[in-house]
Design a protein that fits this description.
This protein is mostly beta strands and 236 residues long. It has a single domain, classed as Alpha-Beta Plaits (2-Layer Sandwich), CATH 3.30.70. The protein is built from four helices and 15 strands. A hairpin with a 7-residue loop joins strand 11 and strand 12 (182-191). It is globular, with a radius of gyration of 18 Å.
Length: 236
């Protein structure tokens, strides 16, 4: 079993952009792991990478999807040391989630950082401001099987269990600004929060919240490190 802190973040909207869609920005229903590291970095006030966290788990639910028109102002830098300059303006359609709730499971020493986060917590874009709705000390118990909803599953687990999930190639983390290069890319199966899937033999991936009975996949540092290239910013 694992002692953990369960942190529930709530917001009016969330937007986790699907990679490679430019003219119409679709949103994922579950944020990539890189978004979770962004939240950890905001709470800690420093850049947090996979080596800094022994493990993490999470799930995301929402009430509905919507879309709107949004003006996008583009900027460009000639090099890392140059000042940004405006290069244009465009209007696009953007999809977003309404009333999302992100439940994080983290080692207990993260509790104090989320009680007093150093920077604003957002679920995607800067306008998707989130608040810490609840924070509780709980125990996670390992399980071999269970029903899951609103989670990301590694591709090998999706393939082995024949899970009905939408596949996306997503980043594990990013290097700090100004480069923001992805540190590792992995294929994940996105299980929407409005669907439920059952896993029968998930090995050591699944843990159950002893209070809510929610089952989530748990990503360990070793897996995230192996999923990431050896040198930060180096893409395999």
């Amino acid at each position: 079993m694992l002692e953990a802190v369960r942190i529930t973040l709530a917001a009016y909207t969330a937007s986790f952009r699907v990679p490679s869609f430019l003219s119409y920005q679709l949103t994922l229903s579950v944020p990539p792991i890189s978004t979770i590291f962004g939240l950890l970095s905001a709470a800690a006030g420093r850049w947090v990478l996979p080596d800094d966290v022994p493990w993490l788990a999470y799930r995301c639910t929402y009430q509905a999807r919507a879309r709107d028109l949004e003006a996008i102002v583009t900027v460009q830098r000639d090099n890392a040391d140059a000042s940004a300059r405006f290069t244009g303006r465009n209007v696009i359609q953007r999809e977003f989630l309404i009333e999302p709730r992100l439940t994080l499971y983290l080692p207990p020493d993260w509790a104090e950082l989320f009680r007093r986060p150093r920077h604003t917590l957002v679920l995607g874009r800067t306008q998707d401001v989130a608040t810490v709705e609840s924070l509780s000390s709980i125990t996670l118990w390992p399980v071999d099987s269970g029903t899951l909803s609103g989670v990301l599953l590694p591709f090998d687990l999706v393939a082995r269990e024949s899970v009905g999930a939408v596949l996306h190639n997503l980043p594990i983390a990013f290097t700090p600004d100004p480069d923001r290069a992805p540190i590792g890319m992995q294929i994940f199966g996105v299980v929407d929060g409005h669907r439920v899937v059952a896993l029968r033999d998930a090995g050591a991936w699944l843990y159950r919240d002893h209070q809510t009975e929610i089952v989530v996949p748990l990503f360990r540092r070793e897996w995230m490190r192996d999923a990431s290239p050896r040198a930060a910013g180096e893409i395999e």
